[in-house]
Amino acid sequence: MAPSPLPGRLTVITGPSGVGKGTLVARLQQRHPALWLSVSATTRAPRAGEIDGQHYVFLSRPEFERRVAEGRFLEWAAFAGHLYGTPRGPVEAHLAQGQPVLLEIELEGARQVRQTFPSAFQLLIKPPSFAELERRIRGRGTDAEEAIRRRLDRARVELEAEAEFDAVLVNADLEAAVVELERLVGLGPSPAGS
Ligand code: 5GP
Fold it and tell me: Atom of ligand 1 at shortest distance to CA of 109?
């Protein structure tokens, strides 16, 4: 497929569950409010504190599948027993307006975006070690053992795909990682230096 003619820059952030992508991205967005973060759709149940339409759009599986059939996702994938997808319309609209757009998605989705948006910048976030990742996932205390096992299995696969990415960021120290992330996605330090 031809490279996208859309003027905004698309960045894809991938990394194992529990690596701290969400926190990093939230910090980046605080510092750069113009950065638009896509809100994904999912069939998994909301976790405590998650708000429909803000953290995810929570859909039933039939509704998700209907939207897949209608071509309404830029990419979608199954992850740990649930479906996740990026709604196409809002991403295209923000890119067309020249806004930087961020997708925080797992490996299969990142691979699909690589086909449709070859010019997208693809970043893998890694934990300092696998043991530390496991500790973080378990420490979150939100998932049952079976879900934890599935997430750890996927984590191994995602980390092995490192060579596919344009850049790799190790999330050992949050402050240092935010600064590095800012540099990698081409935003630089915010004027306020906050
Ligand atoms: P969680 O259930 O922990 O919120 O997310 C599980 C995984 O799904 C994470 O790796 C997250 O990056 C990924 N994910 C979230 N939204 C999307 C999406 O729209 N598409 C894809 N392919 N993965 C997603």
Answer: 22
pLDDT for res 178 = 94
Ligand 1 pocket, residue 36 CB under 6 Å: no
Cα(137)–Cα(134) distance, rounded to whole angstroms?
5
Which stretches of 46-173 are DSSP H helices?
Answer: 61-69, 88-96, 107-116, 130-140, 145-160
What number does CATH give the domain 10-185?
Answer: 3.40.50.300
Is it the case that residue 135 has pLDDT exceeding 60? Answer: yes
Tokens of residue 129, six digits: 């070690």
Domain assignments of the chain as residue spans, ordered by start:
10-185
- Which atom of ligand 1 lies at the shortest distance from residue 110's CA? 22
pTM higher than the cut 0.85 = yes
Q: What separation in angstroms does the CA of 24 have from each of 27, 79, 149, 165?
A: 5, 21, 24, 18
* Ligand 1 proximity of 182 Cβ (cutoff 6 Å): no
The beta-strand segments (E) located in the chain are 10-14, 36-37, 41-42, 57-58, 73-79, 82-87, 101-104, 121-126, 167-170
